[in-house]
Amino acid sequence: MIISKYEQILMTYALEIQRYLIKTGANPADAQDIVQDVLVKLIQADIVLASDKLRPWLYRVALSRFYDLYRREKRYRALLSEQFYLIYGNVVDLDDDRSWQLEKALQALTDYQLGLVTLYYEEDKSVKAISEIYQISEAKVKTDLYRLRQQLKQEMEQNDATR
């Protein structure tokens, strides 16, 4: 099999899997990360699968990653929710308008994102410690924190415009 044709087939399957994961319930950023992890795993495995076996293998690994992510978020859901409300129930450093915007923006976050906020900003955990807690790479934690800050900023600006 010609490598460039193999790469084209691989990219077609990767886009298909990403769309499937989004349709299944993953957010687009997580779907991209999962597909990237699957492709990295394929490269690290240093195997060339036949085209009839490639698609099922990619789906199986991607779904396994997605389920792991879902279980991890579910496992921390109760703990993070309790800590979040204990910590953010007493916001006193911000004026009322900014506090309202922050509270509204934080309500739009997923449990995983709330966990990142709590662990990084309130409990002063390092990126390495967070990566060990969630059993993910440090790069993913950094990327997710960056995306989270951008999302909070955008949400707060939107809330400010609608108020």
Automatic annotation (TrEMBL):
* RNA polymerase sigma-70 region domain location: 13-75
Q: Which residues form a coiled coil?
A: none
**InterPro entries attached here?**
RNA_pol_sigma-70-like, RNA_pol_sigma-70_dom, RNA_pol_sigma70_r2, RNA_pol_sigma70_r4_t2, RNA_pol_sigma_r2, RNA_pol_sigma_r3/r4-like, WH-like_DNA-bd_sf
Report keywords, A-Z.
DNA-binding, Sigma factor, Transcription, Transcription regulation
Q: Which GO terms describe its molecular function?
A: DNA binding; sigma factor activity
Q: Report the superkingdom from the record.
A: Bacteria
Give GO terms for biological process: DNA-templated transcription initiation
Q: Which part of the chain is the RNA polymerase sigma factor 70 region 4 type domain? A: 101-152
A Pfam family (short name) is Sigma70_r4_2
The family assignment reads: Belongs to the sigma-70 factor family. ECF subfamily.
Q: What is this protein called?
A: RNA polymerase sigma factor
